[in-house]
């Protein structure tokens, strides 16, 4: 085991001890080579998140026969024309941010008769560059999703959000709290037995997300280190 790989294993062990049973860890492997994923897998990690469709497909194709029980989560901005490449294998699309994307996932999933799990992305951050439905719109989106009967190949599993990138912990906590309240309101008001995932928190703010009820946290840098933007993802 190389020093780099032993560091990944040690970071994972420490992080999982900290998380305990309160939530599940999505190891964000974007821009990191397949060798790092293998090492995290050997250390017990099974859920990996990617934010670029092309990179996710490439890693899946390379590792699918070797790491058979991995869950691949898509967590980034998803273009409609990339949906067809993910639908056959993705475990969870966390970042469904528009009605157009919802419709395209249903269309592509219906073609192969597969039910795809998704989260609706909620936009609460102050940055306009971040995507998602507004807090005010999500409730109606869920209501329409159920009442229309059009989405037979989509299972709505919950909500995802990204907080503002700031040192203001009070603001971050407030944003997570607003999405958590919405999550539990939807659980209360609608018959959605599989609506059980609240994805909030990254390397810089996951303790605040956990305090507000996150069931999934998306952590990359604290596991793999800084991203290698020019890396060949197929590097062993």
TrEMBL record:
Pfam annotation, one family = Ala_racemase_N
Report the superkingdom from the record.
Bacteria
Residue intervals of the Alanine racemase N-terminal domain: 8-227
The similarity annotation says: Belongs to the pyridoxal phosphate-binding protein YggS/PROSC family.
N6-(pyridoxal phosphate)lysine is carried by which residues?
A: 30
Query: Any keyword Ribosomal protein?
Result: no
Q: Which cofactor does it need?
A: pyridoxal 5'-phosphate
Source species of the chain: Porphyromonas macacae
Name of protein: Pyridoxal phosphate homeostasis protein
A Gene Ontology molecular function term for this protein is: pyridoxal phosphate binding
Q: Alphabetically list the UniProt keywords.
A: Pyridoxal phosphate
Q: Which PANTHER family match?
A: PROLINE SYNTHETASE CO-TRANSCRIBED BACTERIAL HOMOLOG PROTEIN, PYRIDOXAL PHOSPHATE HOMEOSTASIS PROTEIN
Source lineage:
Bacteria, Pseudomonadati, Bacteroidota, Bacteroidia, Bacteroidales
Q: What does this protein do?
A: Pyridoxal 5'-phosphate (PLP)-binding protein, which is involved in PLP homeostasis.
């Amino acid at each position: 085991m190389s020093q780099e790989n032993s560091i990944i294993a040690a970071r994972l062990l420490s992080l999982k001890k900290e998380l305990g049973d309160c939530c599940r860890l999505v190891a964000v492997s974007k821009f990191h080579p397949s060798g790092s994923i293998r090492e995290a897998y050997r250390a017990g990690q099974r859920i990996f998140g990617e934010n670029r469709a092309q990179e996710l497909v490439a890693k899946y194709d390379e590792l699918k026969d070797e790491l058979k029980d991995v869950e691949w989560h898509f967590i980034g901005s998803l273009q409609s024309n990339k949906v067809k490449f993910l639908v056959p294998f993705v475990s969870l699309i966390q970042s469904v941010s528009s009605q157009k994307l919802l419709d395209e996932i249903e269309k592509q999933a219906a073609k192969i008769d597969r039910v795809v799990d998704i989260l609706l992305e909620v936009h609460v951050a102050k940055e306009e560059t971040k995507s998602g439905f507004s807090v005010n719109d999500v409730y109606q989106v869920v209501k329409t999703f159920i009442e229309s009967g059009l989405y037979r190949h989509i299972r709505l599993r919950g909500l995802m959000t990204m907080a503002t990138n700031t040192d203001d912990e009070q603001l971050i906590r407030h944003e997570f709290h607003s999405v958590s309240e919405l999550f539990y309101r939807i659980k209360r008001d609608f018959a959605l037995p599989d609506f059980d995932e609240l994805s909030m928190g990254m390397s810089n703010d996951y303790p605040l997300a956990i305090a507000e009820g996150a069931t999934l946290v998306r952590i990359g840098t604290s596991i793999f280190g800084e991203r290698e933007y020019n890396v060949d993802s197929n590097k062993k």
